[in-house]
């Protein structure tokens, strides 16, 4: 009569066969908690990087306005006159010529879509009057930022 002898190797193989459902759920829960804590601190740099698209668009509109003025007696009053689109290429900002006359103009970029979460810098405005250039920002049309927040929005 043969008796089967259990070796330590056979019992070890059974013990490390895989993860249990509880272990997997615990690992997924920990990853979820870490991700929810890390996301808000990661979102700020993403919004700032996307904001550069609006800054570039406003600077391009400023150059187009100056080209228009060199051929006319006034600045262009519409984006169509400048040959510009109403949004940035990724559609994260809408662009507009707020006002324009012989002396100067005001351009605005307003965040839309996912970029609208950039609450402090939702509106970026570039005003030119004579030789004076003013860059301002704010969360909405009626509110402007203080100088420190304005420098942050414009990357100065």
Q: Which outline best applies?
A: elongated
State Rg: 29 Å
Tally of individual domains: 1
Number of distinct beta strands: 4
- Residues in β-strands, percent: 15-25%
User: SS-based structural class?
Assistant: alpha+beta
List SSEs in N-to-C order.
HHHEEEEH
Q: Span between N and C termini?
A: 89 Å
**Contiguous helical run count:** 4
Please outline the major beta sheet: 4 strands, antiparallel
* Biggest sheet, spatial arrangement of strands: 1-2-3-4
Helix fraction by DSSP (H/I, runs of at least 4): 40-55%
Poorly predicted runs are none
Mean pLDDT: 86
What does this structure look like?
- The protein has 156 residues and is of the alpha+beta class.
- It has one domain.
- Helices cover 46% and strands 19% of the residues.
- The protein has a 4-stranded antiparallel β-sheet with strand order 1-2-3-4.
- A hairpin with a 2-residue loop joins β3 and β4.
Short key terms for the protein model shown above:
four-stranded antiparallel sheet, alpha+beta, elongated, 156 residues
Short summary:
With 156 residues, the protein is α+β, with helices and mostly antiparallel strands.
Give me the secondary-structure topology.
Elements (H helix, E strand, L loop, with lengths): L7 H8 L5 H51 L7 H4 L10 E8 L3 E8 L11 E7 L2 E7 L8 H8 L2
Antiparallel strand pairs: 1-2, 2-3, 3-4
